[in-house]
Amino acid sequence: MVGVETLNVTIPKSLHGQALDIPAKLVRPKWSKAVGKRPAMMVLHGSGGLLKDGPTKAAPCSDQMESQFATWSDRLAKMGYTVLLPSSYSARGFCDKHSQADKMPKTFDTNTEQIIGRIYDLDAASRYLCNRPEVDCESMGVLGFSQGGTMTMLGVHWQLEHAIQYFRETKGGTVDVQVPDLKPGRPEFQVGIAYYPGCGFDGAVPLSTSTKAAVENKYLPTAPLFILHGSDDSLVEHCSTEYGAGSREIQAGQVATKTSVANLYDITVYPNAGHSFDSAGAKADGGTPEGNVAAKEAALKVALKQIVLALGE
Question: What are the Dienelactone hydrolase domain coordinates in residue numbering (predicted)?
Answer without folding.
Answer: 67-166
